[in-house]
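INFO batch 0412 | record 1 of 1 | parsing
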Amino acid sequence: MNEQASRIDTPVSGLSVATDRFLRHMRLERNLSNNTVTAYGRDLQRLCAYLEERHNLVSATQMSRDSLVDYLVHLRGEGLADRSVARHMSSIRMWCRYLVDRGVLDDNPAAMLDMPRTPQTVPDVLTPEEVERLLAVPGTETPRALRDTAMLETLYATGVRVSELVGLAISDVDFDRSVLICMGKGRKERMVPIGEQARATLLLYVREARPRITRRSAARRLRHGPHAPLFITASGKGMTRQGFWKLVKRYARDAEIDKPISPHRLRHSFATHMLAGGADLRTVQALLGHVDIGTTQIYTKIHRERLREVYDRYHPRA
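INFO prediction complete | emitting tokens
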């Protein structure tokens, strides 16, 4: 039996095993979030199903550049946009690089794949006036209303990701220094300042609303320690991304904001308004937790377009 045939028969090179070990590596050693690992798993599961069905491959060592190119052509034929194809290709490249590092593959079949160019779309942001309308909707009359106002205020004041917001524990808020300590992508911790107005609302929520927010039947399950979830539901459990998403959509509708809206749009708005107020790009990059400043630079384009729009609207000779 030749060396290649021997390696095909080794358990680690089987497509499903190679995929499982890669995902475990990403979760445990690279400390990627569950959402990111799930996305990698979904992409690779689709790839492996195609390779098994169309190319009769049972092992990662049987992959070739041609089989991967064939798969990408298949994705385009399925109607996937360039951005989606690029995401699949990124997953494939990461997986193949891992297999080479682990000695499963001698050569990387994905090394010479060309990444499709994806157009850099400019996120649509809320105006400062729209943000003010949105933040004013929930009010502070009830414990849940105060919680929702505190969440919206905190999101806009800090620009954190929604997953970071709902993942905050009570101990992650330092009221004395007016900062949040949040865990970002890749389990990287960063400290984010929080404005005085958001701090005051958040402090009021923690002291008065959080202890009274749960139903009587769930009161015994409410956790009060420093590591307990900061934002909770009536059941005493931590607020979820999906639950907060629904709240934002409802409040945007009540605020008569016609644009499609999500918690991430408040993050976009935070960054754009910071730049419009004179913040430098590196500061905004650090606040958002971006590894690559190129990711942050998209907001400078939004700012320039906004300046042009205002100029065209108000200058008498525009």
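INFO post-check: The longest strand covers residues 179-183.
INFO record closed
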